[in-house]
Amino acid sequence: MVKTIKNHRVHRDHRERFYLNEGDIEMSMDAVVKRSSYSTIICLIVILFLLAGCASSLTPYVSRDFEAGKMAILPFDNLSESQGAAKTMENFVLIEFLKRSSLGIVEPGQVMAAISQARVRLATSIPKETVIQLGQDLEVDLFMIGVVHEYKMQRLTGAGGSGEIPVVSLSLRIIDSKTGNVVWAVNSNRRGNDRESVFGVGRVQSLNELAGHIAMELAQVWSSSF
Predict the structure, then answer these.
(1) What are 79-113's pLDDT values in tens digits?
(2) Residues 96 and 163 in one domain
(3) Are residues 131 and 206 in the same domain?
(4) Are 41 and 88 in the same domain?
(5) Among 23, 30, 63, 78, which residue's Cβ finds the most Cβ atoms within 10 Å?
(6) pTM for the structure as a whole
(7) Which residue range is the domain that position 119 belongs to?
């Protein structure tokens, strides 16, 4: 009889331990599901921020009254304090327009030879008569004129965070070579943290990286304007 009672107790203990283990499993599964849900929500938030950051905020001036077949990029002017910023930005823009635009782009060496012969010092101050003559000499429909206004690293203070971020400001004008009139124009003012989201996602660390982003965005906006 004593042995039967002991066996019954052992059997009951095993059943209770089994039920307890089932409960532990259910609690563990609930915790896994909750953690997965939190991770999914965080991932969705990050994706939404990234998609919002990819959307262009540039709104260019566009004239439809011109032919777009071939373009020459004139040397960019530099109004920033960074020496060489104009040439750096010009190279980024050239590459992105070659990649993303259907326009034919004149080789920069040919452009330099033509403006040297025409004794042009600053692209932003070319008279219409010279623009028309250069257009005939280079056999182009359009000229691009760019001005770099800012190209620097800026230190963050206060609520904006800490460290340094790149700041780049650029304006572009595209001119009809037959009339000298502006047919497309846009300004781009970017900071390294202006599209930063949660956990620092989207933050740009260097000037060259930010310049590359701006050039790509400008080429995309130009291509989508028509």
Answers:
(1) 999 999 999 999 999 999 999 988 999 999 999 99
(2) yes
(3) yes
(4) no
(5) 78
(6) 0.73
(7) 59-223
- Residue 155 has phi, psi (to 5 degrees) of -80, 135
DSSP string, 86-135: HHHHHHHHHHHHHHH--SEE--HHHHHHHHHHTT---GGG--HHHHHHHH
Between CA 168 and CA 44 the distance in angstroms is 30
* Run of H or E including 17: helix 2-54
Say yes or no: 51 and 68 in one domain. no
* One domain for residues 44 and 28: yes
Burial category of 33 from C-beta neighbours within 10 Å (exposed 0-12, middle 13-18, buried 19 and up): exposed
Residue pLDDT, tens place only, 171-213: 999 999 999 999 999 999 999 998 777 556 778 999 999 999 9
Residues 140 and 132: their CA atoms lie apart, in Å, by: 10
